[in-house]
Amino acid sequence: MPTPPLLALRGVCKRYGVVEVLTDIELEIYAGQVVALLGDNGAGKSTLVNVISGVAPADKGTIEWEGRAVPIKRPHDARDLGIATVYQDLALCGNLDVVGNLFLGREIRRFGFLDEVEMERRTRHLLERLTKGVPDLRVPTVSLSSGQRQTVAIARSLLCDPRVLLLDEPTAALGFEQTREVLDLVDQLRDRGLGVLLISHNMGDVKALADRAAVLRLGRNNGFFDVNTASQEQIISSVTGATENVPHRMASHESRW
């Protein structure tokens, strides 16, 4: 019997007033794989992330976790399952140092006082496993490079040991070297067995990193691709609507990809 995906969406719909933003969305994320979520502006990518992360619960459809239906009505529900999200704005406090940002809202206390030594130890241990690119943990994050801030945001999401990580445009504002560092970091997370949903407009990043691509167009599925075999032109055609491929149902894992 095939292993079920870590996370699966079955017929998910989301409506705001009379406008249906997502219609019958299907998506699967497996352990140790990167799935790229592609689509033009307004395709529904951000709404889909909000549905999975519990910020904007689905109105219809089913969300499955390891093959069983689960409710995700609040961000707390997603975190309890093992879903973490890094948004494009990173949500870092520029005046706080790296340690302060990682433990903001979940500070470690000892005898009623902040345990700065333990928080710094854990931060250093986590970052050393991920990157050597943040040498000083006590500088304000506003003084870090864009790539370093992205690394800090990803590291913060890993404190709770998630199994699925949602990354919203993680390389959008980065230069070449910083982009390479972030992509290497995501590659490490895949090797550690995480399922990663990578929201991106950058086809170079998608072809370099993703195992699969799922395309949204006007709030609907418009194609699923094996990134290793599909051409860049095929995927872009699905994004722009040059080809229409809206599935009525998800095929099996083996046959679809």
TrEMBL record:
Domain ABC transporter: 7-243
GO MF annotation terms: ATP binding; ATP hydrolysis activity
Assigned keywords, A-Z: ATP-binding, Nucleotide-binding
InterPro entries documented for this protein: AAA+_ATPase, ABC_carbohydrate_import_ATPase, ABC_transporter-like_ATP-bd, P-loop_NTPase
A Pfam family of this chain: ABC_tran
Transmembrane region(s): none
SMART domains according to UniProt: AAA
Family annotation (PROSITE patterns): ABC_TRANSPORTER_2
Entries under SUPFAM superfamilies matching the protein: P-loop containing nucleoside triphosphate hydrolases
Family annotation (PANTHER family): CARBOHYDRATE TRANSPORT ATP-BINDING PROTEIN MG119-RELATED, SUGAR ABC TRANSPORTER ATP-BINDING PROTEIN
Protein known as: ABC transporter ATP-binding protein
